[in-house]
Amino acid sequence: MSAEDKRAASPRDEEWPEAEKAEKLARGAALKWASGVFYCPEKLEGLGQYRSRETQRNSSIQSRLKSTVQSYLEGVSAGLEQLRSAAQEVQSVCQDLGAARWALLDSADRFQGLQQMRALMAEHVQLASVVQVLPQLFSVHEVFSHTLQLLRGQQLLEAHAELMMMEHLRDDILSQLHLRGLSDAQATVLSYFGGLQELNESLAKQLWDIVGSSLRLVCEDPVLFVTAVRIIEREEKIDDTLLLEATFLPPGRPKGWRQKFYHVLRETITGAHFHGTHADTEGPGLARHLAALQKAIVSELRVVKDLMVQCVPAHYNILSVCTATYHQALSGHLQDILREDLDKQALFLLLEWALRVYHSPEMMGHPDLLPEVDVSALGPLMSPELVDQTERKYVLKVKASVLEWMQRTLEVEFKEWFRDEEPETDHQGFFQSALPVIVMQMLNENIQVASLISDSLQQKVYNMALEELEAFLSRLREALVQCGKEHQKDRTVPKYYVSYLLAMLNNNLTLSSSVSSLHPDAACRELPTSLLAALDRTQKKACQLLLEELLLDLQPLCLQLPSRKWLAGSQLVSSMCEVIDKYAKDFSHVRKPIFTLLLTESELVVASQYLRALMQKKMVCKSEEERGQFCNRLLQDATQLRELFCGLGLDRSQQSLEAVFALRELIYLKDPALLSLEVLGFITKYPDVSDEHISTLLDLRGDVSKDVRHMVLEMMAQHPQVLPESYRPIFSTILVPAPELPFCLRKGKCA
């Protein structure tokens, strides 16, 4: 390519780079094809054929391109011609519009005469309208009289038709006056049509009387009720039409008779059953009142569902309206009743009626009312707050009743303790009374009755029952203490004091085992710790009184220990065994866990009293022989007592008498120099022993010098003891008499 061709092609290449690229690709493809075809010399013979064929092909392509370009050019030419024609037509229209504008401007003065003609025409139309209504205006009062006669004859549809005609005439005149701004003339028109107000009131009164008797009329004469509904619907359509136009609202509109229909119907329902009637709040009277309400409401809702629904349009939703009215009226009525001071029977009736009966198949769930009547969407008859408040009132009433009943039961029980006969026994010979059965039956009955209402009420009554049982146990302990005081004054009263204490222990055990059955949830029988503590305190109080009685019988015998007479041989311990055996026979009338507890505590009392007697410093061994005799006596007594308790069923490992054997070893030790080691072993086994106890025991030996005593006490100070958690104290309950202080003056009479 020459330099001129390159310069000529340069602008085109810059403008059409894709064309240059396509041309290069085409040339490259042609060269590749030609080199492939004519690679062999023998193929060069067909060069002419290839050339002619390609020439024909190029000619065909060029002819198709020319025809295509020609068709495009013809289309462009036709479009340009159409644009030229449209421009000429637009110019022509603009000229015509200009001419019309100038023509209108020339004839504007002539239209002013037409304005006067238009005013005369409007006046003519008005006068023609007045002429047309003049006969009706002159007959207004006659129509009033006729309409009043129709109302008196209960021809309500005809009377309402004439009333609508008169109202339409009046409203049309008032509307015309309103549009012309003649407000002064409106008062004259209203005065002329003043009788309409009286007719409206008379018609409305009859309509509301009919609506008020609707439940009876749909059964006896539904035509009258349907007529009233039709009239109300006519008035509603007139109200809707006037409100939509919103240009002029005649006086007395909108009447809103449909809403008035609902209002009268609601007032009728509530007035018939809930207003002006004072419900008897006593149990039987309230039950009759609620039963009457239940019967009346179900009966009337049947009438509404089966008959009244057919007499009113569907959009009235009359069944839903009546159902909601009964529901709301009942809710308010129950609230009014609950404001009274009701007893527990009345409160129970109201809760049962509101939570159970109201939704049951006997009332709102009656088969004749379902499925159309559905009160589930209306909310609860009593709000959750009111239910909770009523339940609390009921629980308080039940609590007062339970308290009174338990107090009476306790008084009867207290009197029985002073009878001249033993308490009754069960089939196993255990002492008992009717107290736990009465108490549990009373509490269980109240809990079961509460379960008929709701789980929440049952839980409240259960909590109250446990609280009252705890309070009852406190009063029972006070009664036991009072009985114990009476017995201290005269041990023959009550005659069977021990037997009734044993019966109370069995009763307490019965309460402990049966109180868990009161829980509403069988899977959860856990009792509050305060109640368990109250049961435990009652058991301990009865055991304490029994042990005090045992102590009173043992003390006279223990006062004789130790003594020379006892040392020489006496029947003191045998007498103690007889007393213990007598009480053990009484203890056999209590159940095993209590029997074991009493036996254990009795053994501790015996051991404590025996050790206390030894600590009273009544005797000091004067010689080694006497000390040996003293230790032998201790061994005999402790062995006899231990064998007695073993025979009664108390294992040696559970006995506190082992302390007597250990004490005997301490006194029997022959070498006082070894006392420190012996005392160390003693305080290790009995860590609650004090310095005073050891000093008293050393005094009892009679052969301990001051140096040895000092060494022993110093050793105890160097080895302080800590009481283990499982240790059962024995020495800490024993008081040692204070030593006599030396007196510096001679004994003699005061001057």
From TrEMBL:
Q: Which family does it belong to?
A: Belongs to the SEC6 family.
Q: Please describe what this protein does.
A: As part of the exocyst, may play a role in regulated exocytosis of insulin granules.
Please give a single GO biological process term from the UniProt record.
exocytosis
Q: Where in the cell is it found?
A: Cytoplasmic vesicle, Secretory vesicle
Q: Which UniProt keywords apply?
A: Cytoplasmic vesicle, Exocytosis
Q: Name the PANTHER family for this protein.
A: EXOCYST COMPLEX COMPONENT 3-LIKE PROTEIN, EXOCYST COMPLEX COMPONENT SEC6-RELATED
- Please identify the protein, giving its name as recorded: Exocyst complex component 3-like protein
- The domain of life is Eukaryota
Gene Ontology cellular-component terms for this entry are:
transport vesicle
**Ranges for region Disordered:** 1-21
Quaternary structure and partners:
Interacts with EXOC2, EXOC4 and EXOC5; may be part of the exocyst.
